[in-house]
Structure formats: structure tokens, C-alpha cells
Design goal:
Blueprint: H1 6-14, E1 20-23, H2 25-36, E2 46-49, H3 54-61, E3 66-70, E4 76-81, E5 84-89, E6 92-96, E7 104-108, H4 114-119, E8 129-132, E9 137-138, H5 143-148, E10 151-152, H6 159-162, H7 166-177, E11 180-181, H8 183-191, H9 201-214, H10 219-227, H11 230-234, H12 236-239, H13 254-264, H14 270-278, E12 287-288, E13 291-292, H15 295-309, H16 314-326, H17 337-347, H18 352-364, H19 374-388, H20 401-410, H21 422-437, H22 444-458
Parallel strand pairs: 2-5, 10-11
Antiparallel strand pairs: 1-2, 1-8, 3-4, 4-5, 6-7, 8-9, 12-13
Helix pairs in contact: 7-9, 7-10, 13-14, 13-18, 14-16, 15-16, 17-19, 20-22
């Protein structure tokens, strides 16, 4: 099954017949579509051109769009036309002479065969090319068979020592495609496990993100990393939960529960997925008999440190930490309206649905039947309160800092040119407390009256 792209025709017309090949994930995914009805990626189109030196390739491509050569030794040309950018490369052979994918001897050009170029790739399922425009499949290493058999295998045992990041690629592919891994691959991963420490945090971040966002069951990848010893070097905090038994509300140890909760959370939301994996990560360090007192606090602190280590964005770190800290909320459907609003204020409205999704995944990841519908009833009440749109923060008040500054100036309690001090924030927070208990009091005239009463009472410092 070949998917034709407009870029194929554009390049075919510009290059000598028989020189152009599609390579990369696109070819793999075409076969996956054939055998598994998997979707074909329309992004990251990669091509290899054989039989041409770099200067001739550039001359042929120049009329098509803007060119950017990425490293003369690599002979990879980024071709941009319109909003699209594709990679067009000369075949290359490479030999690792350093650790962590940092030092290579590279030879690229017409003297390197397509088969040599394919052989340097990570897994046999990716060592594929398709001749254009004929669509003939080039498969010198059995990649099609691996895809048909739904497995991941390597060609050479040094695959992971040449680029240790490939251990994470193996894990995320195994999880995303739900493929088995061969004994040959797992043995090579085990032998190279410690080398993951030589890989940059940024590259690790990218592979972990693919694992958590794209895989239906990320646990497949994490278990592979645990079984091969990679997790000992990559993320040892997760392994603290192995064998840590829980109370009667859980059928699994902490490690298995974390994985089950992760799998029960929906793909696509990186922050939710990370919170699902890490919500109970603090339990092993807080275990006291059958109890785990303050594990959400310890877990939140651990979460921030771990995610910062892997260079996740500040927003992802902050929100994931917050969800871990709040995940033990009491879902009491009988909570008073004022207490309900305080819950929303503490969690913050933008985090409510994620927190409810985390609770749902936590329940499903317990391994036991759901006890009742209390969580759902509580969530319904929260959503109804949100729909009323009462004030959930100082910013939602019908007055603001300028009103407080104006009142202080009129009362002679501030000098001309005054732009605010701690009295402004204190007054606004006091007003907010009044409307938290009685949302109907969030009315401008009433709040200005209350502000005068408040200032009368506190006086001039």
C-alpha cells in the first residue's frame, strides 16, 4: 500500500529516474496500514537520493524552494516550499567513535549504497525504503516481516551502544504499536542500560513525551525499561514502588497501580498522563503500616524535581505537581456550597476536569470494582457551581485594585501618586472571602460599600 504525496511527484520530476526513495516512518506506517489498518503519517516526509553528489542534488532542488543543508558531513537538505518542509538526504554510512550519539565518523554520497544507509537505522521495521515513482518496496533486512509479525528487532547488537536513546525509542514504539520485542533486542538493551545517562535530557524528554502522549498503554514501554534495567538509571524513583503493598482499597503494589492508573488515563494529555503515573509516587517514602500519611505532599515535591530533570516545561511541571498534591480530595456530595467553592478555588477552575479524570483513572487503576457513584455526584455539583460563574479568585471580583487605591486616596490614607502597597491586596482578599461564602454579594456597589466599612475598621497603619 503506497500513499502518494504531492512532494513525491515534485521530486520525481526534478531528479533522475531511479534515484529517489521514500524512507523513514512513512514507509513503515504504509505497511502497518496494510497489515493493521494503522493511520499513515502525513508529516516528517523523508527521502534519500542515490547516485548524485551533493552539489548536483542542490542544483536539482534549488528551483523547487528554499534549501538548508544540515551539516555538510550529513548531506541532509531541508527543502521548504510553501508551508511544507521535507528532508532530502544522500545515503550515508556512519560509525560511532564516542558515547551517547555524540561522535561519529560519517561518509555520505553516491559511493554509499541505499542498503548501507538503511542498515544504520535503529530497528529492522524502520530499515525500509520505497522506490519512487514505482512504489517498489526495498526491504533488505526483513522489516516487512517484523511489521507483519508485530515485533521489534535489531540488526546488530551495537544498536544501543551507538545511540543509547534508542532504548527509549524501543520502549515508545513497543507501547505505541503494542508490538512484542525479541530476546535479541532485550539483551542488547540490558547491555546498554547504563549508557542512558550519557543522553541529553532534551532528547529523553522528546521520547518520553511520545510515549505518554501517543501510546494507548504506556505501561508496555515502562515495563520494558524496567525489565532491561534502563529504569534503574533513567527514573529510579518509580522503582521504589515495586513490591510496596497497599491497603484493602488496592489490589496491586504501588508500581503496578501507577502503571494501571497511567493506562486508564486518556492519551493525548501529557500533563494528565504524568499526574496519573506520579500521583502515588510518594507512597514508598511515607509508608507507615497500611497508611501513607502525606504521600501527596511528598509525591508533589518529588514530581517537580523529576520532571525538571527531564526538562519538561514550567507549565507542565507546575500543573502536574498541583494535580499530584490535590489528588486526595474528599469527594463529599454533601459538602456545603461555600466549601464547594473553596475546593474549586484551591484546585483552580482550569484544573478541575483534569483532576476528575485523574480520580477516575485512579479508581480504575486500583484493580477493584468501583464502590459507589460518590465521585460522579460530587463532580456534577462542582460542574453546576462552575456553570453559575461565581467569583473563584480576586480577579473575578466586581472591583479591583484601582478601586482600593481610589478609596485610600479619597480617605487621605495615601499620598497623591500612590500606586498601591500591601493594603490593596489585603483588602481585595478580604472582599473575596465575603463573596466566597455569599456569591450574590459580588456586586460593585455593595463591594464598594463593604470596602469603606473594611477600611473604617482597619484604620490607617
Amino acid at each position: 500500500m503506497q500513499r502518494r504525496f504531492s512532494t513525491d511527484d515534485l521530486l520525481t520530476a526534478a531528479l533522475p529516474l531511479g534515484s529517489l526513495y521514500a524512507v523513514g516512518g512513512r514507509v513503515r506506517d504504509e505497511l502497518r496500514a496494510q497489515y493493521e489498518a494503522a493511520p499513515i503519517s502525513t508529516k516528517d516526509l523523508d527521502y534519500v537520493v542515490t547516485g548524485m553528489p551533493l552539489d548536483e542534488l542542490l542544483a536539482a532542488l534549488r528551483p523547487l524552494g528554499r534549501l538548508d543543508v544540515v551539516g555538510a558531513s550529513f548531506s541532509v537538505v531541508k527543502l521548504s516550499f510553501g508551508a511544507e518542509t521535507v528532508d532530502v538526504a544522500l545515503p550515508r554510512r556512519e560509525r560511532s567513535v564516542g558515547v551517547g550519539h555524540r561522535e561519529f565518523e560519517i561518509e555520505a554520497g553516491p559511493d554509499v549504497s541505499l542498503e548501507e544507509d538503511l542498515a544504520r537505522r535503529d530497528f529492522r521495521m524502520n530499515m525500509l525504503a520505497r522506490a519512487l515513482p514505482s512504489g517498489f518496496l526495498i526491504d533488505p533486512y526483513g522489516g516487512e516481516t517484523d511489521i507483519r509479525e508485530r515485533r521489534i528487532d535489531i540488526l546488530a547488537p551495537e544498536t544501543f551502544t551507538e545511540d543509547p536513546l534508542r532504548v527509549l525509542r524501543a520502549a515508545q514504539f513497543a507501547a505505541r504499536f503494542e508490538y512484542s520485542t525479541t530476546a535479541n533486542l532485550r539483551a542488547a538493551m540490558t547491555g546498554a542500560a547504563s549508557l542512558i545517562t550519557s543522553v541529553s535530557a532534551e532528547r529523553i524528554h522528546d521520547e518520553l513525551t511520545k510515549l505518554f502522549v501517543k501510546a494507548r498503554k504506556p505501561s508496555i514501554g515502562l515495563e520494558l525499561l524496567r525489565e532491561t534495567g534502563v529504569l534503574d538509571y533513567l527514573w529510579p524513583e518509580l522503582l521504589e514502588g515495586v513490591g510496596i503493598e497497599q491497603n484493602e482499597w488496592h489490589a496491586y503494589d504501588v508500581w503496578t497501580h501507577l502503571l494501571a492508573t497511567l493506562d486508564a488515563s486518556p492519551p493525548g494529555d501529557l500533563t494528565l498522563r504524568l499526574a496519573a503515573l506520579l500521583h502515588d509516587v510518594g507512597k514508598p517514602r511515607t509508608k507507615d503500616g497500611p497508611h501513607f500519611y502525606r504521600h501527596e505532599i511528598v509525591g508533589a515535591e518529588m514530581t517537580a524535581a523529576m520532571l525538571e530533570r527531564f526538562r519538561f516545561s514550567n507549565e507542565v511541571v507546575k500543573t502536574t505537581e498541583h494535580l499530584v498534591r490535590q489528588h486526595m480530595f474528599s469527594a463529599d456530595p454533601q459538602l456545603s456550597d461555600a466549601a464547594l467553592r473553596r475546593f474549586i478555588r484551591r484546585v483552580q477552575p482550569e484544573n478541575i476536569e483534569r483532576l476528575f479524570a485523574l480520580r477516575d483513572a485512579d479508581v480504575r487503576g486500583s484493580g477493584l470494582p468501583k464502590r459507589d457513584e460518590g465521585n460522579e455526584r460530587f463532580a456534577d455539583r462542582v460542574r453546576a457551581e462552575l456553570a453559575r460563574k461565581p467569583a473563584f479568585s480576586v480577579a473575578d471580583l466586581a472591583v479591583d485594585g484601582d478601586d482600593v487605591i481610589g478609596a485610600l486616596l479619597r480617605r487621605g490614607e495615601a499620598q497623591p501618586g500612590f500606586t498601591g502597597d500591601e493594603r490593596v491586596g489585603t483588602a481585595l482578599r478580604w472582599l473575596f472571602e465575603q463573596v466566597t461564602d455569599e456569591p450574590e454579594r459580588n456586586e460593585r456597589t455593595l463591594l464598594l460599600h463593604n470596602l469603606e466599612q473594611y477600611l473604617d475598621r482597619v484604620g490607617t497603619p
